[in-house]
Amino acid sequence: NPQTQLEEGVSHLRHAMEPYTAWCQDLYAKAKPQLEKAVEQGFEFLQNPPDGFYPRLGVIGFAGILGLFLARGSKIKKLVYPAGFMGIGASMYYPQQAVAVAKVAGTQLYDWSLQGYIAVESLWKDNAKKKKSGKKDDKGSH
């Protein structure tokens, strides 16, 4: 029973994708127990929340919706405004956690900006070297 060209293509694709599917299955098997535990803990927390949790959640959620409403126009605003408004709302209710998050976020932003600066600087230097070497080659070939 000879295979059609479509069957051969699908077979080739399955063999090519096999390492990736195995990696995904392994990752899923490792993450599944942790996710199930997190969902279970979240469910237990919502069954017996601390006093004032739902009003706080409402204010923080409303801040996010307000951010979406005010973020007309660019897609960046639609990402920044809701997150920023929710962050401000959460920091009103959870100031100690907000300070801890701000410290970590500040350090992370500094690291990312430094990495970006180094990457741009290396690209700039590489382009300058290419231009100089290109000009020398042009002069030498005449």
Automatic annotation (TrEMBL):
InterPro entries attached to this UniProt entry: MIC26/MIC27, MIC26/MIC27_animal
Record GO biological process: cristae formation
Protein name: MICOS complex subunit
Reported function: Component of the MICOS complex, a large protein complex of the mitochondrial inner membrane that plays crucial roles in the maintenance of crista junctions, inner membrane architecture, and formation of contact sites to the outer membrane.
Subcellular localization: Mitochondrion inner membrane; Mitochondrion membrane
Keywords associated with the record: Membrane, Mitochondrion, Mitochondrion inner membrane, Transmembrane, Transmembrane helix
Description of how the protein assembles with itself and partners: Component of the mitochondrial contact site and cristae organizing system (MICOS) complex.
Residue ranges of the TM segments: 53-71
Chief localisation class: mitochondrion
Protein family per UniProt: Belongs to the apolipoprotein O/MICOS complex subunit Mic27 family.
Lineage, top ranks: Eukaryota, Metazoa, Chordata, Craniata, Vertebrata
Cellular component aspect of the GO annotation: MICOS complex
Gene for this chain: APOO
One Pfam family cited in the UniProt record for this chain: ApoO
Top-rank taxon, per record: Eukaryota
PANTHER family: MICOS COMPLEX SUBUNIT MIC26 / MIC27 FAMILY MEMBER
